[in-house]
Amino acid sequence: MRVVLKECLWESMGDELLVLFDPREVITLGDPDGQVAALFAELRREPRTPEALATALSVPEADMTAALEVLDSLGLVEYEEQRSLGEPGPDERHFSNLAFFGSYSGLDRPRAEFVRRLRDAHVLVLGVGGGGSSLVQSLAGLGVGRLTLVDRDDVEPRNFARQFLYRHADIGRSKVERAAEWVREYDPSIEVRGVDRWITGPEDLKDLVDGVDLVAGGLDGHPEAHLWVNEAAVRARVPLVVGGMTRSQVMYYSVDPGNSACVRCDWENRAGLGDASAEGFFERNRGALTVTNTLIGPLAMQIGSLVAYEALRYLTRFEPPVAAGAYVKLDLRDGLQPERQPFATTPDCPVCGT
């Protein structure tokens, strides 16, 4: 296959070649004889096979292979044939997605393969309200091929400050029904199913997690709903990504079954805190505290996008998940600065047994 140089700039300076690929940094390569600059020029002229490049530059093929391996390790080259899906319609539809993955692709990590993984993926979305409505839009934009949406609420006027899937004409309609319609209108190639259902325990999730690649979103209405979802996902060995908000924090977390601690681990550990401590008081009462929903549009979109981006990590593995077994909290009082807080682990956790 033909190797192509990614979009970058370079300049020779003394015995070095300076390369600018990511505007955050300059890559410096030793090039006393100008051979690296010549290789860059050949690659820029047109994509070539390693053999053709070796011939053009009069170097042994083994040396050319080694040079390309170095450029690949720096994220500067990929195969021309793997830059697109090879279908005009999907390539146009996923133009930006393909460009994004170009920053992470390589000779053995085709950008097109990342997009194919998304198109083949099935995501279960729990809740299509605040953060969930933005999550649905983000997943659809990524081109996730199959979505199962779960909710039981109807559209109300109070939703319009933060739920942009819905219109005033939808008031009184099932949210999940309208959300599924939105997905079909947005991209008919996405297979979507709406499930209008109350979730009252992990048993209500068993049939929903069967065959999915990831569970995302979150449930409210019961202080232990997050434990039900955690149990269902871990039992099915399906990654889980959840987001939400308190009065002053935006937060998301994820569980990578078999690789990270789970929500129950953290709950079991914190449940044993001494009653006489301030932290114990907090843990006993945080689930019982009634707070008027303070979620507004910009923060709902923040939650949806953070959950979708963590889901993207799991579905494509373009990079490792950053919130596996941890809360990532963004403090509104500190300019949304993120802080990662690992789950407290419980060796004999009844769900994951970490």
From TrEMBL:
<dbReference type="Pfam" id="PF00899">
    <property type="entry name" value="ThiF"/>
</dbReference>
<dbReference type="InterPro" id="IPR045886">
    <property type="entry name" value="ThiF/MoeB/HesA"/>
</dbReference>
<dbReference type="InterPro" id="IPR000594">
    <property type="entry name" value="ThiF_NAD_FAD-bd"/>
</dbReference>
<protein>
    <submittedName>
        <fullName>HesA/MoeB/ThiF family protein</fullName>
    </submittedName>
</protein>
<dbReference type="InterPro" id="IPR035985">
    <property type="entry name" value="Ubiquitin-activating_enz"/>
</dbReference>
<feature type="domain" description="THIF-type NAD/FAD binding fold">
    <location>
        <begin position="112"/>
        <end position="351"/>
    </location>
</feature>
